[in-house]
Write a structure and sequence with these properties.
The protein is an alpha/beta fold. It has 13 helices and 10 strands. It folds into 2 domains: 218 residues, Rossmann fold (3-Layer(aba) Sandwich), CATH 3.40.50; 92 residues, Rossmann fold.
Length: 333
């Protein structure tokens, strides 16, 4: 699979200037996560650990950028975030920093770690269904009834520019980068990173990685447009289970992305365990999917290779259930 169209023909694509403005706005606010060598997978393989980002995931980059660009009088009325978890925590944190109220709409299946994180950051939590559509519809309803601004989780150019600052950091810290692997859920991170990498290092290869249970980008690419997965996706990578790729992200994928691969759930536990055992990094299944792709041989590390670890919002009970004694989250000794 290769880039399908020239970026110059799509007015919806973010510019390098927009990416750099977002990076400047995040300076001194977001964590500039390092590149760490993953020697177990090769002498020239690195990870970018976004679980070290504020809020425990890359989502803070886009959430803060979006809120910072709202008119202060609009922002003061509050924000509403539909999210499977990480976007909710990021918006809650950004809202607290700006001193405005936040409501987050999360699935009924949300993990305790992600719900608890949003609540600790001061957000009001509303539960709605199990899909991205359920959450979006409820968020829009709340905005209509109560006022406030809906903060899109991925299908928005300002959000994409914020997430893309991670890609700028990769090419600044490793100018010789040849391959970048990035997780894809709704598509905001993968779109932003792909744009940033290609605009600065056009010869680098960018590969999106999605779970087999939610192949929304693979199906969109085959169809030439975003299509909805016919049944509710399921799997360990709860942050990547969108039923449809965003339209704005997909325009960026068509312009900048080189490939997309799918990873089985069974590979995620091995990647999480290796990152914990060898690198002392706690990574949630969605965040470990890029390393799983390398471990499975789905992507070959030719030259300097960076795997983006998108987040680490998993707590002890969930980690133990996945990697330890197999007991369900909430079990006690």
């Amino acid at each position: 699979m290769s880039a399908a169209s020239s970026p110059s023909f799509s007015p919806s694509l973010i510019s390098l200037d927009a990416l750099r403005r977002a990076a400047e706005g995040l300076r001194g606010v977001a964590v500039r996560t390092p590149l760490l060598p993953l020697v177990e997978l090769g002498a020239d393989v690195w990870v970018k650990p976004e679980m070290l980002q504020r809020g425990g995931a890359f989502k803070f980059r886009g959430a803060y950028t979006f809120l910072s660009q709202l008119d202060p009088s609009v922002r003061a009325r509050g924000v509403i975030a539909p999210s499977s978890g990480n976007h909710a925590q990021a918006v809650a944190l950004a809202a607290r920093m700006f001193g405005v109220p936040a409501t987050v709409v999360m699935p009924t299946t949300v993990t305790p770690a992600k719900r608890g994180g949003a609540e600790r950051l001061g957000a009001r939590v509303v539960l709605a269904g199990t899909t991205t559509h359920h959450r979006w519809e409820r968020a829009v309803e709340i905005a209509r009834e109560e006022g406030g601004t809906v903060v899109p989780p991925y299908d928005d150019p300002t959000i994409i520019a914020g997430q893309g600052t991670a890609g700028l950091e990769i090419v600044e810290d490793l100018p010789a980068v040849r391959t970048v692997l990035v997780p894809v859920g709704g598509g905001g991170l993968s779109a932003g990173v792909a744009a940033a990498v290609k605009l600065v290092a056009p010869n680098a290869r960018v590969v999106a990685v999605e779970p087999e249970g939610s192949p929304k980008l693979s199906r969109a690419w085959a169809a030439g447009e975003p299509v909805e997965i016919p049944s509710s996706p399921d799997g360990l990578a709860d942050g990547l289970l969108a039923v449809r790729i965003g339209a704005v992200p997909f325009a960026h994928h068509r312009a900048y992305l080189d490939d997309v691969v799918t990873v089985p759930d069974a590979a995620l536990r091995g990647a999480m365990r290796m990152l914990l055992d060898r690198m002392k990094l706690v990574v949630e299944p969605s965040g470990a999917i890029t390393v799983a792709a390398l471990m499975q041989g789905l992507v070959e590390a030719n030259g300097a290779t960076v795997a983006v670890l998108s987040g680490g919002n998993i707590e002890w009970d969930g980690l133990r259930a996945l990697l330890g004694d197999g007991r369900a989250p909430g079990a006690t000794d």
